[in-house]
Amino acid sequence: MGEIYLPKETKRKGPWLLGVEELEVLDLVFENVCEKLTTSYSKEIAIIEKEGEKSKSYIETLKEAKPYKVCYFISNDEIRLVDKSIKGLLKDPKLKGFKPKEMGLSFKIGNNNSFVLELSENGDLQYNLDSFDTEIKEELNYEIEKWIRKNKPWKVYELWKSTATLLFLISLVTFFFSLENLYKTPEEIYKNDLKKQAHTLVANGITQDNEKQAEELILKIESDYTPSNLSSQLVFNNKARTIIYYSLIAMAISIFCPTNVLGFGKYESKLHFYKFWLKFVTIIFPAAFVYPAIINLVKIVLKI
User: Fold this and answer.
1) Residue 164, CB-side half-sphere exposure with 13 Å CA sphere
2) Separation between Cα atoms, residue 168 and residue 174, nearest integer Å
3) Are 208 and 85 members of one domain?
4) Does 215 share its domain with 93?
5) Is the whole-model pTM more than 0.70?
């Protein structure tokens, strides 16, 4: 029977939204990892001693290995808080004025039992797990992946973040173009109306009944004719206003795109904002357009 070899290093793309509750669960996972890797280390020593293939000095050095365990948060101004556990960091009084951007966990005992997890500023979460005991490695990998699955971001957030710059540029161009057309002169409206009438005549076909009207339209369009009694007052363009509104919304969506948020310290309110904002953009906002369509469909069905 073949064996499954788990990769040492695994990477997951963000953005990640992690608050105190999610980190407290991760702390329990981390403590379990440390405990199980220590068990794996003990098994490693027992097996090596039993096999008798390694020198006594090697075994003694292995037995003297001290466990290395550290958790850390890094702030925007590169201040680093360090402790033996995540819970210890969360209880640190200095965390109140902290603006976290990165975090990491690390544990190592011996040569073949280690775990490193890092959440970088660019949104990537990666971990490296190594264990002498294969069964323990599989069990720990399951626990870590279980936590990741529960807290991983939607794929739509990743897509949103990757297209934010393009969306902003398109929205900006649309905004300024619509702003220029926000008001129209009566002359522009009149000439556009002539063109619409001409298009309608061409689409319906020229007949003897509308031949005179067609000739009159051609003369007016070609001669750039405008009636002398047209008002000089500008006319508000409702269509351009609607496009401006949607352009502003699109720009807001692109500016406040999903990003890594470690929601503790000074970023607790930031986490609440982004959780609401992402839900609003991906669920509530689209529903506002879909809901009327559903209502109309229900009305049509009921009439039938």
Assistant:
1) 14
2) 10
3) no
4) no
5) yes
pLDDT tens digit sequence for 152-204: 988 888 888 889 999 999 999 999 988 887 777 666 666 677 777 777 777 77
Residue 227: give the domain boundaries: 186-236
What distance in Å separates the CA atoms of residue 149 and residue 165, rounded to the nearest whole number? Answer: 28
Q: What is the residue type of 31?
A: E
Cα–Cα separations (whole angstroms), residue 143 to 42, 90, 104? 21, 22, 17
Q: What is the rounded CA–CA span in Å between residue 241 and residue 86?
A: 51
For 153, the 3-state DSSP assignment is coil
- pLDDT recorded at residue 271: 93
- Domain count across the chain: 3
- With vertex at residue 33, the alpha carbon angle to CA 154 and CA 116, rounded to the nearest 5 degrees, is 65
Q: In which band, very low, low, confident or very high, does the pLDDT at 3 lie, cut at 50, 70 and 90? A: very low
Partners of 81 in the β-ladder: 73
Q: What are phi and psi of 6, to 5 degrees?
A: -80, 135
